[in-house]
Predict the 3D structure of the following.
Amino acid sequence: MAMRLVLAAVALVLLYQVWLFGWVLWYAYVPPGSTSVMRSELSRLQERDPHRRLNYQWVDYGRISNNLKRAAVAAEDANFLEHGGIDWNAVEKAYDHNRQLAEAAERALARGRKPPTRPMRGGSTITQQVAKNLFLSNSRNYLRKGQEVVITYMIELVMTKQRILELYLNIAEWGEGVFGAEAAARHYFNTSASNLSSYQAARLASMLPRPRFYDKNRGSAYLASRTDRLLRWMPGAAIP
């Protein structure tokens, strides 16, 4: 009986992976009407306002400014065109940075001082973020991360880099209830995604790690300095 239960559980897991792969194939050609993260956010917003709707509009790759494409790659995944879905060097660097930051915070607290305010780093690639946004959630646990890795390799297997970046720019969260490049361009700059300037694109890309926070704190000094750095990095960012 125990063996049967184990085999049944394995079969269910494999069927779930096949189901996910089917959706990955679908999204390789069809724009998503919504994503897992979008649905979660809409549910949260509708707890306060049952009539609330998300600000989301799909636009094709050719209708998104190259400035924003370069800014997103420079900000989130400089090796986007080179890696096969996961940038293991970036993961290692992020781990070392975050460990040093945690140790510095412990030392500061032990001495009665204020911990450093430098932000933690994430090692996720653009492909991993597409996998998470489409199918998973913003929760942090090893089971979700493992499933994210599997979906990431599925995406890289069937999609071009251009399609992956197109999906990413269309489903990324850019503020409270704001999803995708078109909605973000209109929300912050009253323009279209195709007309974003270099500065506007760098500003939007700088918001990606904490979009809801920066939506409410647009005068952040860190946001301004991050925008300046991205403007310098953007010319060297390779895009599909």
Summary: The mean pLDDT is 88.
